[in-house]
């Protein structure tokens, strides 16, 4: 009986050593927890399904469909794959000619690029490849987007370009009720009857004009005994007994405008390059200039994080026109807009 007990003890002791020791395959001297001296095979799945959710049986996934598709990562909280799958790695290749959108399942779950950049999804371009790994975070940032490879043909796709047309309000109206300045940037409800007409876009892909600040030099009295009262951004003088006029202190009418984007905030703003070009629907020449001032992400009052764009719009025509001609000032009254282009090197 004693001999049997000793034998059983030796078996258990040896099994314990095996479980806790380093394991080598095709090597007698493993130098890691698992040391494989040879090739490795992993789970491979090729699919043309337009919607698919990765499972515990997947590792390398290739999409080969004939239309755009969606690939879902497992829900880290409520799905069949729970928090115990920390460290699970998926490798994904888009082998089709269409976009494949990778989505993390679960409420608030995102793909982490770095500590400041989290994506709701990532679009895998045709021919591209990504790797994602499950993190220790159960909800937000549950997956690390740790590698993106692009084919040579798709090298230019790393440049993200976004375009929009933003409406410019009049600097004044024919009625005296037009407010020269307003600021809804700290309000929980930023769309009102005043600024709703100057909202551009639709759904979450829209820009709301939340702030205007009139920035005009007004010289109503030119200080000349024979001069006329003039408004706007200039001073005009006439020497006594002289029919000639000379103009001083010329500046165009201008206004500072701040727009708030209602969709997912743009990230890596230090690598976003904005371009703004003037336009209008009044068949006028482009008589104003748009100057970029600021592009920033801010925390709003009850509406989460938002991207805000601030520009200075200057009207440069009709200088030196008299006050009594209400339609001929450099303070514009028509509907104008500017085209916004944002380029971001991803």
Total number of helical segments? Answer: 1
Mean pLDDT: 75
| Distance between the first and last residues' Cα | 72 Å
Low-confidence stretches: 12-17, 216-249, 319-328
What does this structure look like?
The chain has 346 residues and is mainly beta. The chain has two domains: 106 residues, Sandwich (Jelly Rolls), CATH 2.60.120; 152 residues, no CATH class. Helix content is 5%, strand content 40%. The protein has a seven-stranded mixed β-sheet with strand order 3-5-7-12-13-9-10, with no helix packed on it. Strands 15, 16, 17, 20, 22 and 23 form a six-stranded antiparallel β-sheet that branches. The chain starts with a helix and ends with a strand.
Offer a concise description of the structure.
By secondary structure, the chain is mostly beta strands.
Keywords:
mainly beta, Jelly Rolls, 2 domains, 1 helix, 5% helix, 40% strand
Helix/strand layout:
Blueprint: H1 2-20, E1 23-25, E2 34-36, E3 44-47, E4 51-53, E5 60-63, E6 69-73, E7 89-94, E8 100-104, E9 111-114, E10 117-119, E11 122-124, E12 129-134, E13 143-149, E14 159-168, E15 182-183, E16 200-202, E17 205-214, E18 235-238, E19 245-248, E20 253-261, E21 272-280, E22 288-299, E23 305-315, E24 336-345
Parallel strand pairs: 1-2, 3-5, 4-6, 5-7, 6-8, 9-13
Antiparallel strand pairs: 7-12, 8-11, 9-10, 12-13, 14-24, 15-17, 16-17, 17-20, 18-19, 20-23, 21-24, 22-23
